[in-house]
Task: inverse folding
């Protein structure tokens, strides 16, 4: 896949629409593929990936602040306490994606996160399914992997919903479990190297 040149002329992954959208470029440059460990932050990413299913990520990104406002900044305890009045409120909110199944899944996933066994966190579940081998340069970026399939099964076992193997892999990409920046992208890591945490500049030799 060819790279695209952003508004600053840097070569980036060829995501549809990225070359014309500075918000999209900022997300690509400062968040996507970088480690995320906080439970609320991971819950937000998981929720947005589920809402993205069947839609473009750019659609979700542009509604991100509205999602944060509507879902109590994705604090799991806040979302887990949502009731029917909140569901009605969300279904009437045109600034987010009004999908009842996804809204119910987000509330249920907050409850599942809080119900994880003592000593188990969402961060640990994700990290424990990191691939053992680094994808070779030039290998196609998959839509799902054996690890994301297993992660989806484990999450389902713990009561999470709307997180299939494709969504699970998109989550792994987004929070730095894997680094899938295309070769030639200015953020493509040398083999075996990970990106810095979200918002930090990489220091490639």
Result:
């Amino acid at each position: 896949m060819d790279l695209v040149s952003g508004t600053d002329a840097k070569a980036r992954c060829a995501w549809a629409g990225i070359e014309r959208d500075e918000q999209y470029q900022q997300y690509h440059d400062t968040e996507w593929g970088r480690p995320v460990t906080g439970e609320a932050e991971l819950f937000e990413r998981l929720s947005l990936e589920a809402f993205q299913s069947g839609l473009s990520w750019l659609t979700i990104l542009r509604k991100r602040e509205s999602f944060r406002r509507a879902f109590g900044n994705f604090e799991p305890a806040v979302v887990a306490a949502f009731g029917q009045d909140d569901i009605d409120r969300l279904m009437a909110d045109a600034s987010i994606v009004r999908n009842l199944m996804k809204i119910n899944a987000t509330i249920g996933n907050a409850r599942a996160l809080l119900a994880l066994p003592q000593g188990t966190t969402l961060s640990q579940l994700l990290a424990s399914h990191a691939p053992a081998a680094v994808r070779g340069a030039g290998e196609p970026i998959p839509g799902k992997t054996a690890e994301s399939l297993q992660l989806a099964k484990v999450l389902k076992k713990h009561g999470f919903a709307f997180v299939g193997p494709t969504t699970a892999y998109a989550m792994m990409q987004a929070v730095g479990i894997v680094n899938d920046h295309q070769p030639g992208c200015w953020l493509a890591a040398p083999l075996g190297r990970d990106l810095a945490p979200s918002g930090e500049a990489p220091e490639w030799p």
Summary: The longest strand covers residues 4-5. The chain has a mean pLDDT of 89.
